[in-house]
Design goal:
Blueprint (H helix, E strand, L loop, with lengths): L1 E4 L3 E9 L1 E13 L2 E10 L6 E6 L4 E13 L4 E8 L2 E9 L9 E12 L1
Parallel strand pairs: 1-9
Antiparallel strand pairs: 2-5, 2-7, 3-4, 3-6, 6-9, 7-8
Amino acid sequence: MQVSSQSPVPFQFKRKGGSIITSRADVWSAVASGWKLVDAVVFQQVTAPNEQLSLKLQKGQYTVVFQCRVEESVNGVYDFGLNCGASAVFADNGNVNTTSDPHDAKVYKDQFVLDVN
């Protein structure tokens, strides 16, 4: 997936359900020697159904790696989504409560290309 946005780049993370949901989007730039971590947005206000953050980035192309952790709490139900700019880039829902363990958890990972113009 490829997303275009102007700087500052808005990120929005939505969550709901009976699980604890945290996430992070790491912004990487390709350099001659490999990769350089430019910035990251971290969504850890677990009581907030909607978090909005923005990053000031230089014009150019970036790879954004999105990671999300869902942990069973009052139940295992979860629903989350990440938007970058005006684009929905990742979403999932379900029930993480799959065993008798009271701390069932899942980690999700995805990535997309971000063009800042």
